Amino acid sequence: MRPARPEDAEKIDAFLSRRAEGSMYLRDNLRLFGPCGGEGDRATRIWIAETGAGEIEGAVGVSNAGFLFVAMQQRRIGTDLPGLLAGERIEGIVGPTELVEAARRALGLEGARVRRDMPEPQYSLELEALILPPGNSELRLAEASDAEVLTRWRADFLGDVFAMPAAEAALQAARQVAGMIAAGRLAVLESAGRPIAMTAFNAVLPDIVQVGNVYTPPALRGRRYARRAVALHLERARADGVRRAVLSAADTHAARAYEAIGFTRIGLFSMLMFDGAQGVEAA
Fold it and tell me: Which DSSP category does 134 fall into?
């Protein structure tokens, strides 16, 4: 494998687009920052494996935030990753569950303490089959004036789902919400002018989006607000020409909500987060 160069970006994107469901974060980071890293937590250094004919057959990326993304054949992970990533510090591994587990084994991190290690069912939807739930609530893009409420919601989510300490969750939530609002990716469902749920796209490509950051405050749950928020957001994306969407479900309640608007299960997806950065030792 070799480090990617700027001129590799187009063919890396073509390679990842053929594995879209498991490569959304890596493909989105590539589109935003290119293949050679840069400024920002999501800027990612990418390495590629090529055939003798110069075709890409595998890609690995490490973001500035320390997240590892693997898009390659499982049989190569054990031989290629340890030497390639020696000296790196890894905060987490993201991708299809079988690849995440293979990468953890290859890097000798099976015994490392984790904050989150819960494979989630992954879902896909062709947007022409989107089912829009009935209701009077309306969706709009989040604005700067929404940041205080949405940051509190996001911090609660990070604490509940990722077992993040309160102070760290508040800091991360503020950064994430500000970034999503600036990028136009975060949306608010409201009723009578009151915010009742939020949803976002955590990866956006011309042909496909990945849904994330879906949240309803505990006092408002059970009223089908989350499914309506997601469906309305996807309806907007469909109007802009997006054809597909993917997401993963954190629990059975979320899974039922997504299935109700047309999503079908396609596999397992993991966002493995270690309890602190883990150093990769030389092979």
Answer: -
